[in-house]
Automatic annotation (TrEMBL):
Keywords: Signal. The keyword Signal applies. Coiled coil: none annotated. Residues 64-301 form the DUF4097 domain. Residues 1-20 form the signal peptide. This is DUF4097 family beta strand repeat protein. The keyword Ribonucleoprotein does not apply. InterPro entries: Toastrack_DUF4097 (IPR025164). Pfam families: DUF4097.
Length: 307
């Protein structure tokens, strides 16, 4: 056994020395990347990069659809239409126009692997989009791995589907919002929506803004935090996590159906059903409705002051 560990240590030492010599001979790179069954230096890995750019919105296009396997996406308002895609791994997206929709698709990366380095190294695919006000009415985003940032974008329809990654939406407004996030946190700040359908599998959901007609939020695992002018039909279903509601509307504005199977229920600072492990509260009258159900987790609701 002792001999085995000596041999293993010697092999690791030889491998480390070989890596150091290889890196030095290739420009003294501090990072090595394993992909496609090969070891790349940072210079060699950079040579795999691809970039694309689009500076004009095709005539007759009112929608944009992104189908990206591995990229961080940033979308913001700008003076002119502009899309840039910088891919360190795999092929940059290709653009097609279908039925009035500009569609950007990338292929599953052939260069996804892992990197190891002696210093800091960060290489990600990025797509950056600038949209003039009113340029588009619909935006459809489908991502595999990567984060999403949207700021100051106003649409009729926004659909977001993410497999793995976090999202931050600031001052984004639309008539219809649909979100499905499998793994990652989703934050919406300062927007206004007609209807919103939010589905979270694993990750926290935070919403601060206004809803005019309806909001339905479903969370399998993670906290849900909603605040703002929450009008219309508001429904939250949480399997595991804390639900916090802070509405600008007064309590009298809602018909209420609140309950948790295992947890505490607190409304306007008052603990409800202290003698029950499954507290609930119902209120029939109200111009709007608020229904919150939790399988395992606390529910905290705060209403605005009565006029």
């Amino acid at each position: 056994m002792k001999r085995f560990f000596c041999v293993l240590f010697a092999c690791m030492l030889a491998l480390g020395a070989a890596m150091a010599i290889y890196g030095y001979q290739n420009g003294a790179s501090m990072s090595l990347y394993w992909a496609d069954g090969h070891v790349y230096t940072e210079k060699e890995f950079d040579s795999l990069a691809e970039s694309e750019e689009w500076t004009e919105l095709p005539e007759g296009v009112s929608g944009l659809a992104l189908e990206l396997n591995n990229a961080d996406v940033t979308i913001r308002q700008g003076d002119v239409f502009h899309i840039s895609a910088d891919y360190q791994r795999g092929s940059a997206p290709e653009a097609t126009v279908e039925n009035g929709v500009l569609r950007l698709r990338d292929e599953a990366s052939a260069h996804i692997g892992f990197g190891f380095s002696l210093g800091p190294s960060h290489k990600e695919n990025t797509v950056t989009i600038e949209l003039p006000e009113g340029a588009l009415t619909a935006l459809d985003i489908l991502t595999g791995v990567g984060d999403l940032s949207l700021e100051d974008v106003h649409l009729e329809t926004l659909t977001v589907e993410m497999d793995m990654g976090s999202a931050a939406l600031k001052d984004v407004s639309c008539d219809r919002l649909s979100v499905q996030c499998n793994l990652g946190d989703f934050t919406l700040e300062g927007g206004e929506f007609g209807t919103a359908e939010l589905t979270m599998n694993m990750g926290s959901l935070a919403f601060s803004g206004a809803v005019r007609t309806a909001m339905r939020a479903q969370s399998d695992m993670g906290d849900v935090d909603l605040s703002g002018a929450l009008a219309g039909e508001i429904e939250v279903n949480a399997n595991l996590g804390t639900v916090s509601i802070d509405s600008q509307l007064p309590r009298s504005a809602y018909a209420l159906d609140l309950g948790t199977d295992l947890g505490n229920l607190t409304v306007d600072g008052e603990r409800i059903g202290t003698d029950s492990i499954s507290p609930s509260l119902q209120q029939e009258e109200g111009e709007n409705s608020l229904r919150v159900r939790a399988d395992m987790g606390d529910i905290l609701v705060q209403f605005g002051a009565e006029e």
